């Protein structure tokens, strides 16, 4: 059985995105995010291993090199593997 890597999945996704873009069907960054999300959510290999979030707000108690907290970072797309802990779940474990 061949292992499908995240890189393989993303390369396949990007090939489809390029086709859609070249047809003039992507008209904004939000639309691009939507197409990527849709393609990945339809991929069974992706769904078996990963979760995708669009523009999540990230907070952490970790500090940057300048000793400031990491707060309010909003990446365009965040892909995580497997289970994701939510803040409310970590509070309940203490």
Compact description:
This protein has 4 helices and 2 strands. It is mainly alpha-helical.
Explain the overall architecture.
This protein has 94 residues and is mainly alpha-helical. It has helices at 6-22, 29-41, 44-49, 87-93, and strands at residues 50-54, 77-81. Helix 1 (6-22) crosses helix 2. The relative contact order is 0.14. Residues 90-94 have low confidence and may be disordered.
Which descriptors apply to this entry?
94 residues, mainly alpha, 2 strands, single chain, 4 helices, disordered C terminus
What is the helix tally?
4
- Count the E strands: 2
Radius of gyration: 17 Å
The percent range for helix content is: 40-55%
What is the helix/strand order? HHHEEH
Order of strands across the widest beta sheet?
Answer: 1-2
Give the structural class: mainly alpha
Sheet with most strands: 2 strands, antiparallel
User: How much of the residues is beta strand, in percent?
Assistant: 5-15%
Give the CA-CA distance, first to last residue.
Answer: 41 Å
Write the layout of secondary structure elements.
Elements: H1 6-22, H2 29-41, H3 44-49, E1 50-54, E2 77-81, H4 87-93
């Amino acid at each position: 059985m061949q292992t499908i890597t995240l890189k393989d999945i993303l390369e396949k996704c990007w090939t489809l995105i390029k086709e859609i873009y070249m047809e003039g069907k992507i008209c904004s960054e939000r639309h691009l995010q939507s197409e990527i999300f849709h393609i990945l959510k339809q991929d069974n290999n992706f769904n078996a291993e990963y979760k995708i979030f669009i523009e999540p707000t990230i907070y952490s108690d970790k500090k940057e090199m300048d000793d400031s907290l990491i707060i309010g970072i909003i990446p365009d797309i965040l892909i995580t593997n497997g289970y994701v802990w939510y803040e409310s779940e970590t509070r309940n474990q203490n």
